[in-house]
Specification:
Layout (H helix, E strand, L loop, with lengths): L1 E2 L3 E3 L2 E3 L1 H17 L3 H7 L4 H9 L6 H10 L5 H19 L14 H9 L2 E6 L10 H10 L6 H14 L10 E7 H5 L5 H14 L5 E6 L13 E5 L8 E5 L4 E4 L2 H17 L3 H13 L4
Parallel strand pairs: 4-5, 5-6
Antiparallel strand pairs: 1-9, 2-3, 4-7, 7-8, 8-9
Helix pairs in contact: 1-3, 1-5, 2-3, 4-5, 7-8, 10-12
Amino acid sequence: MNRGTREGQGNRTSTVLGRRLGGELHALRTAAGKTQLQAARELSATATKIVKMESGWVPMRDPDIRVLCEFYGVTDGEVVAGLLALARLDRDRRKAKGWWQQVPSVGNLAEYVAMEDVATRIRTWQLALVPGLLQTADYIRALGVSSDSWTHPDEIEEMVATRTKRQARLWGDKPLEFHAVIWEAALRQEIGGRDVMRAQLDHLVAMAELPNVHVQVLPFRVGANHGVSGAFNLVSFAEPGAVDVGYSEGIASMVWVEGAEGSRLFTQAFDRVSRMSLAPHDSVKLIEAIGKGFQA
């Protein structure tokens, strides 16, 4: 597990996908009983390069990965193919000149937005707020006004425009598959006033009609549940063997869960709250009923 998002070192960047790939190569090297210096000699490189590769600081070339796999005695073609696919995904993400790189308000979320842009599916569990990709502009604006992070109206409007632009992933020829499970409390919390909440819930119902958007509500009556420990997102990719990446944001840190075991735990947690929640049709009915309660 790693805390934080992107960390710069010179003109290089440690990425979530790069760190995961480096961690898998480190595990293979350790299992083979090889040192970093020995691995470096196989690549005619310095030990520093192996350190950077295993820490996710540099993009990895396919020939280097193949040489290291052979040196480590990896004979399973699927394992090698999975590493190569992960390396390609990381290289593509590093090279991407996405719009978010030019928007200061994206800030520490830049790496998450980059992964969101290439993801094929996102599953999210939310306790206190409507998921960002399903928020209306007025709801986003109300959150900005209440936050200490934004002090100027122009900053808030930039945040609104940025989040609204991210929502474009739900449309188009290859829309993102989005599955949201929302605790009932998030639907009853009055963000921005009654009119804003009523419009937000109407928008949530409309978005739930999209074939690629699945909305479920975990009602109060369920009582104690496994999801109360915190909200999180689970990001999935199309590449064969690409492990899902878990993401959770706290008050003072962002937590990435990059490995297969961590991904499995996030998946299990999401599946549990999903099974405990109302079916999509019944969820929409509850959202509509709550929305009527906000009418004047």
